[in-house]
Amino acid sequence: MDEVFGLFPTPVLRAGGAVPPALVAELAAHFDAAPAEPNAASDQLVHTRLLRPDDSPLLPQLVALLTPKIEDMGALMFGQRLGWAIKEMWVNRMGQGGHQAMHHHANSFVSGVLYLTEVDAAAQTVFSKPVGGTEFVFRHQHAQVSSTPFNADRWVCPATAPGDLLLFPSYLLHAVPPNPGGRRITLSFNAIPGGLDAWGYAIRFGA
Length: 207
What we know:
Layout: E1 13-15, H1 21-32, E2 37-38, E3 45-47, H2 58-78, E4 84-94, E5 100-103, E6 110-115, E7 126-128, E8 154-156, E9 165-169, E10 173-176, E11 184-193, E12 195-198, E13 201-204
Antiparallel strand pairs: 1-9, 2-3, 3-4, 4-11, 5-10, 6-9, 6-11, 7-8, 7-10, 12-13
């Protein structure tokens, strides 16, 4: 009997309804009016500055809801439930035609996106396979080729709703295609564990 193994898979965790609707609505309304900086690649995308807990009484409530999910993700990545801290968070506001260029997040281990509004199907977060070192030189691509988890170059997040949370390793390349729909508001963040220990060789991190 044949067996196919998904060898060394990359975890991406989607938590539906991780944040209750009332808090999502308050966050969207509050940060929709917050000052923001333009994105370098898209004039229909702006980002708030990095947020502090005292920027809004809503943020401590949010962190309390996000932290257990980050701990779940950390357990998948490191094999143990560790103490985690969100080191930075910010809000993205995207209008029609806006997009987010391909990027990854440095100096963190888990990154996340909390969806605060509906998202057009064409503007879901897209993840791309890292470039270099993992592929054969020759490719097999034409109209009759079927896409599978083993040959695809990208993965599109399934449909999301306000309050849904997406967590992924910070090194994973991701982007948002041009948005043909209405206003798209998300809250992004990066998180780090308190430390890592490799048989006594330990390193500690501070938020």
